[in-house]
Amino acid sequence: MASPTFSRALLASAIGATLAVGTSGTAFADNTPTYDGELSGFEYAYPVERFEFSSQGQDMQMAYLDVAPDEGSANGRTVVLMHGKNFCAGTWEGTIEALVETGYRVIAPDQIGFCKSTKPAHYQFSFHQLAANTHALLDELDIENATVMGHSMGGMLATRFALMYPEHTEQLVMVNPIGLEDWKALGVPYQSIDEGYQSELETTAQGIREYQQSTYYADTWAPEYDRWVEMLAGMYEGEDGERVAWNQALTSDMVFTQPVVYEFGELEVPTLLLIGEQDNTAIGKGRASQDVQATLGHYDVLGEQARDAIPEATLVEFPELGHSPQIQAPARFHEALLEGLAVQ
To answer: 3-state class of 31 per DSSP?
Structure first.
């Protein structure tokens, strides 16, 4: 593959294709801001810290938020927030505020390959690796036990973390996790990383907005959602857009080929499922036949199946909400979350 400079000519030569859409900005709205590969200039609501470590023979830096409750209000518990594939640590800002106000310390990393963290040219992405990276961060911060909470792709990662480190996991919380079904086994064709990279290069702000409206917010939209569209689109639009697209292709392959659903029965920790039932996320659904598409992404059913498969699980459903209930209906969501955390 291409060198870390991600020369367009080298990438095109390596995969034997002409790049149909680049990152010059012509495919994006004129007012879309641009960000580099570490999202410089996009401010999170809380200060960003950096964890430097070595992984797979490379120097890495993992950006993270470490937000403590006010002095005297701490309850002694820590919640680790794991973002989704199209999200960042900063996207958790409303949830961080709700948790901190209730006495929780919150750790929210940007995983390697995402947002403000390193985007390597070559990396063997796996949920095991990302869980190990997160565990190393918690070791660095002297955190021995935590509630691990994941949204979307982060739900798959949080599950893997709980399976690998049950002795360090007080509770597992999954918010509309993807991976509640094995798309490949159900008939979604595999897409090569090269093909995925080509698709990622065509990402536009308009396309992101349309997808999020139909999936994340159940065909509704509010002006505050635009910030998260611009965050994501701006990285594709910026000077490191090809590197961003490449890492997104690598992590898409990870998500598609590393299901955790078959191991739900092995979870040893109390688990809280928070599910917006209007969600219809299914990775690669558009590559499948119409008959297969009709069977995928039914979260009103998938949430119940996950609850039944996990030994000690509680399910809270939001019938009218989509993939991101914590953003779409924060007050209602956080009330359910805090109630579920209190009974662990």
So the answer is: coil
User: What is the Cα gyration radius of the chain?
Assistant: 19
Report how far residue 187's alpha carbon sits from residue 183's, in angstroms, rounded to the nearest whole number.
6
| Extended strands (E) in the chain | 49-55, 58-67, 78-82, 105-109, 146-151, 169-175, 271-276, 313-318
Give the three-state DSSP class for 299.
helix
pLDDT at position 27 over 90 = no
Give yes or no for residue 99 having a pLDDT over 50.
Answer: yes
Domain ranges of the chain: 8-342
Class of domain 8-342: alpha beta
**Closest among 137, 147, 68 to 109, alpha carbons compared:** 137
Q: Which pair of tokens denotes residue 174?
A: 């999954």
CB-based contacts of 199, cutoff 8 Å, min separation 6: 191, 249
Asked if residues 24 and 92 have their Cβ atoms less than 8 Å apart, the reply is no
> Is the model's pLDDT at 2 over the cut of 90?
no
Phi, psi of 59 (to 5 degrees): -80, 130
- pTM for the model stands at 0.91
Instruction: For residue 237, give every residue at least 6 positions away whose Cβ sits within 8 Å of its Cβ, in sequence order, or none.
Output: 23, 25, 28, 32, 33, 34, 35, 205
Which of these, 100, 168, 184, 171, lies nearest to 131 by C-alpha position? 168
- pLDDT value at residue 30: 52
Q: Tell me: pLDDT of 26 over 60.
A: no
Of residues 286, 326, 328, the one with CA closest to residue 95: 326
Region 279-296: mean pLDDT is 96
Supply the DSSP symbol for 66: E
When pLDDT is averaged across residues 120-129 and rounded to a whole number, the result is 97
At residue 9, does pLDDT exceed 70? Answer: no
